[in-house]
């Protein structure tokens, strides 16, 4: 990745419900995660409902960070697949914005770095090597990958968030499990593998987004990811605006379901399955039986792990 000067740079601001707290740095809690942390999200296949990228945008706008490195988009993007966009600035000039990936670092103090961009369309091994060079140059100890996947989950219940790690020390300290997923992967998995091979610890944090509302952003899933980040590393992001957006998101879906009996019935089935799993008195056999009943009713042989078609 090419290093960027510390000031005088501009970058595209995504829509976000958060305002930046100027001069604020975040210190990583001492412990298994080490002293410096990189939080990663890509728009695209790993980002259902824009939930992961929106979470990192929120952190970028909150923290006192500057762009410190970026990839050359010519090396990693197919512009027919990830097309550049055009916009007008304040004086009316037309600007072309190219897809890319940028790493942000603390301007003054702080231990949290961010990586944000579009999932590359080619040369993933070389891309991972470039990112790893910056990770090693900045002496980053742990990388946290944020993702969001479409799943058979109801919008009316809390968003499920799964945390896994391929690092045995991290799993032991945080009481996590290793991912059991097998199948196609995105750039997050490629980067995680490169990091672990280089002895950089990794965590993967995934939110489940209702697949029947896949075409719109999911602020409720973004909020769930930020809640989990606060639990893991102690970063506190103001939530009032996002909570209001999440409530409006849920109300809008309720309105649509109220006008569509088939959709309402399907959501009710998802709610029953979720409530059975969450019930404190539910045994493993009862949970399995309810899920099998639900899958038979759907008749599509869907997966019982709730991942749907988009795996990590």
Short descriptors:
9 helices, disordered C terminus, alpha/beta, Rossmann fold, about 35% helix, about 300 residues, two-stranded antiparallel ribbon, globular
Which superfamily, in CATH terms, is the homologous superfamily of the largest domain? PAC-like subunit
Please give the order of strands in the largest beta sheet. 1-3-6-7-2-8-10-9
CATH class bucket of the largest domain: Alpha Beta
The count of β-strands is: 10
Percentage of residues in helical conformation = 25-40%
Poorly predicted ranges (pLDDT <50, ≥5 residues)? 6-27, 300-310
Query: On the 0-100 scale, what is the average pLDDT?
Result: 84
CATH architecture of the largest domain: 3-Layer(aba) Sandwich
Structural notes for this entry:
With 312 residues, the chain is α/β, with parallel strands linked by helices. It has two domains: 2-238, PAC-like subunit (Rossmann fold), CATH 3.40.50.10900; 248-298, no CATH class. The chain contains nine helices and ten strands. The protein has an eight-stranded mixed beta sheet with strand order 1-3-6-7-2-8-10-9. Strands 4-5 form a two-stranded antiparallel sheet. A hairpin with a 5-residue loop joins strand 4 and strand 5 (94-97). Helix 1 packs across helix 6 (219-233) and helix 7 (240-258) packs across helix 8. The two termini are 24 Å apart.
């Amino acid at each position: 990745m090419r290093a960027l000067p510390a000031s005088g740079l501009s970058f595209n601001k995504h829509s976000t419900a958060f305002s930046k707290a100027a001069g604020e740095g975040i210190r990583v809690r001492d412990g298994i995660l080490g002293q410096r942390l990189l939080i990663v999200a890509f728009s695209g296949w790993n980002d259902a409902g824009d939930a992961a990228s929106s979470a990192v945008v929120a952190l970028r706008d909150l923290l006192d960070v500057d762009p410190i490195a970026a990839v050359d988009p010519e090396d990693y993007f197919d512009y027919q697949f990830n097309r550049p966009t055009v916009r007008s600035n304040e004086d009316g000039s037309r600007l072309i914005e190219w897809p890319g990936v940028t790493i942000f670092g603390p301007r003054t103090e702080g231990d949290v770095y961010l990586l944000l961009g579009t999932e590359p369309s080619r040369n993933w091994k070389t891309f991972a090597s470039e990112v790893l060079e910056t990770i090693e140059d900045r002496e980053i100890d742990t990388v946290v990958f944020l993702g969001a996947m479409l799943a058979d989950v109801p919008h009316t219940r809390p968003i499920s968030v799964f945390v896994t790690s391929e690092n045995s020390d991290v799993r032991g300290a945080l009481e996590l499990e290793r991912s059991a997923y097998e199948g196609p992967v995105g750039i997050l998995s490629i980067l995680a593998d490169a990091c672990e091979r280089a002895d950089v610890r990794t965590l993967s944090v995934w939110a489940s987004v209702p697949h029947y509302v896949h075409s719109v952003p999911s602020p409720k899933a973004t909020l769930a990811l930020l809640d989990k980040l606060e639990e893991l590393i102690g970063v506190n992001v103001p939530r009032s605006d996002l909570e209001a957006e999440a409530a409006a998101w849920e109300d809008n879906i309720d309105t649509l379901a109220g006008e569509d009996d088939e959709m309402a019935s399907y959501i009710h089935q998802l709610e029953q399955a979720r409530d059975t799993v969450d019930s404190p008195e539910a045994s493993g056999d009862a949970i399995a039986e309810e899920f099998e009943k639900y899958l038979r009713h759907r008749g599509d042989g869907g997966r019982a792990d709730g991942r749907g078609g988009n795996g990590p």
